[in-house]
C-alpha cells in the first residue's frame, strides 16, 4: 500500500513538473521576444562561442556590431580597463594582459602557480586580487578552501585577505575592486554545511584585509543565494543577483555600498547573471537566459530609472559547444 502511494505521489509530481516547466519556459520565451533591441553606447567586451567553432573567444560589441574577435584563447574570466584586457582559464595557466585588439601585451608568469579561480585588477593597475586554494595561512589543511588574496602585478607582496578553514572549494569567489581601490566586494559562503547546502552572501573587505563585512546578512527579504556583485562607476552602489523565494528566478538588485537600501531592478521570468554598470551608471548590462540556461545566454540592458529591459545580442545556433550562442562575462566601457 505504501509503495502504491509513493508511486502515485511521484506520478503527480511528474505531471506537475511536466505542465509547469514548459509554462515557465514559454512565459520567458514570450517575454524575451516582446523586448526591443537597443544599441548600447560605448563598448562591451565579453566572451562568446558565437564566432569560434573551437570554443569561447573574446569579443567587442561597439556601434551594434561584434568586432575584434580572437579565437583560441579559451578565456574563463576576463577583466577590462577599456584599453587593456586581462584574461585567464580557471585554476590553470598564467593570466595574460592584452591590448584592446586582443594582441598579446604581457603574460603574468608568476600567476601560473597561484591556481587562480577568479580575479580582478586594481583601478591603478598595480595589484591583482584573486581567489585561490593556496595554502598560505593554512598549510596543514588537506583541502584548503578558496580564500581571497592580493599580490602586486610583478608578483611581489603576496597576501591572504580572508582566512577560512572550512574544507569546501567555493568559499570565496567573484572578487571586484571598488573604483577608488580601497575595498573589494566578493561572494562568500556563510555556513559550515556549505558543500550540502551552501548559503552565499555578498561581503566586502578593505584592500589591506581589515573590516570584513556582510553587506546583506539576514536583514533582506529574500532567501536566495546572493551572487555576482558589481560596483557602480562612482563606487556608491553595488549590483547583484538573487531570487526572493523558490517561485522566483535570479533577478537583479542594487544596494548602497554599505548594504542599505536594497532595491529590485528586474522582475522578468528568466534567469539573469553577471550584471555590470554602464560607464555613466544609468544602465546595467547582464547575461540573460531567456531560452533556458542549457540554451546559452545573451546580453541584455536594463535602464535603472525606467527599469525597462532591452535585448542587445541575438540567440542562434553555432558549431561550438553547447550548440547555441552563449554570451558571457560582459564588461562595459566608454
Note down, in words, how this protein is organized.
By secondary structure, the protein is mainly beta. It has one domain: Neuraminidase. The chain has one helix and 24 strands.
CATH superfamily: TolB, C-terminal domain
End-to-end gap: 68 Å
Number of helices: 1
CATH fold name: Neuraminidase
Number of strands: 24
Radius of gyration: 21 Å
Q: Uncertain segments of ≥5 residues (pLDDT<50)?
A: 5-25
The H/E string reads HEEEEEEEEEEEEEEEEEEEEEEEE
Number of domains as seen in the coordinates: 1
Structural class by helix and strand composition: mainly beta
Could you tell me the strand content as a percent range? 35-45%
CATH class: Mainly Beta
The main β sheet shows up as: 4 strands, antiparallel
Large-scale geometry:
globular
Give a short synopsis of this structure.
The protein is built from one helix and 24 strands.
List the helices and strands and how they pair.
Layout: H1 2-34, E1 43-48, E2 57-62, E3 65-70, E4 77-80, E5 84-88, E6 95-99, E7 104-108, E8 116-121, E9 127-132, E10 147-152, E11 159-160, E12 172-177, E13 183-189, E14 200-206, E15 213-214, E16 227-231, E17 237-242, E18 251-256, E19 263-264, E20 271-277, E21 283-289, E22 298-303, E23 309-311, E24 327-333
Antiparallel strand pairs: 1-2, 1-24, 2-3, 4-5, 5-6, 6-7, 8-9, 9-10, 10-11, 12-13, 13-14, 14-15, 16-17, 17-18, 18-19, 20-21, 21-22, 22-23
Tags for this model:
Neuraminidase, single chain, mainly beta, four-stranded antiparallel sheet, 334 residues, 1 helix, 24 strands
Amino acid at each position: 500500500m505504501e509503495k502504491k502511494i509513493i508511486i502515485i505521489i511521484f506520478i503527480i509530481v511528474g505531471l506537475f513538473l511536466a505542465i509547469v516547466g514548459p509554462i515557465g519556459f514559454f512565459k520567458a520565451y514570450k517575454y524575451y521576444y516582446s523586448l526591443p533591441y537597443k544599441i548600447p553606447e560605448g563598448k562591451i567586451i565579453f566572451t562568446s562561442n558565437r564566432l569560434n567553432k573551437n570554443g569561447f573567444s573574446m569579443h567587442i560589441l561597439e556601434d551594434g556590431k561584434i568586432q575584434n574577435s580572437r579565437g583560441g584563447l579559451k578565456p574563463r574570466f576576463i577583466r577590462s580597463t577599456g584599453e587593456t584586457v586581462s584574461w585567464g582559464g580557471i585554476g590553470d595557466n598564467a593570466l595574460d594582459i592584452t591590448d584592446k585588439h586582443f594582441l598579446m601585451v604581457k603574460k603574468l608568469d608568476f600567476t601560473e602557480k597561484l591556481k587562480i579561480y577568479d580575479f580582478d585588477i586594481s583601478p591603478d593597475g598595480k595589484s591583482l586580487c584573486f581567489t585561490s586554494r593556496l595554502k598560505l595561512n593554512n598549510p596543514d589543511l588537506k583541502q584548503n578552501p578558496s580564500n581571497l588574496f592580493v599580490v602586486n602585478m610583478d608578483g611581489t607582496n603576496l597576501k591572504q585577505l580572508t582566512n577560512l578553514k572550512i574544507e569546501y572549494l567555493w568559499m570565496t569567489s567573484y572578487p571586484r575592486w571598488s573604483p577608488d581601490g580601497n575595498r573589494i566586494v566578493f561572494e562568500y559562503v556563510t555556513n559550515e554545511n556549505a558543500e550540502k547546502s551552501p548559503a552565499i552572501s555578498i561581503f566586502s573587505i578593505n584592500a589591506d584585509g581589515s573590516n570584513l563585512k556582510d553587506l546583506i546578512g539576514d536583514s533582506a527579504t529574500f532567501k536566495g543565494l546572493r551572487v555576482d556583485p558589481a560596483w557602480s562607476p562612482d563606487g556608491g552602489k553595488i549590483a547583484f543577483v538573487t531570487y526572493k523565494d523558490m517561485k522566483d528566478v535570479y533577478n537583479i538588485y542594487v544596494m548602497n555600498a554599505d548594504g542599505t537600501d536594497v532595491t529590485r531592478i528586474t522582475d522578468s521570468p528568466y534567469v539573469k547573471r553577471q550584471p555590470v554598470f554602464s560607464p555613466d551608471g544609468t544602465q546595467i548590462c547582464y547575461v540573460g537566459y531567456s531560452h533556458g540556461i542549457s540554451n546559452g545566454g545573451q546580453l541584455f540592458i536594463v535602464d535603472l530609472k525606467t527599469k525597462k529591459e532591452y535585448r542587445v545580442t541575438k540567440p542562434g545556433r553555432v558549431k561550438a559547444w553547447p550548440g547555441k550562442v552563449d554570451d558571457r562575462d560582459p564588461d562595459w566601457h566608454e
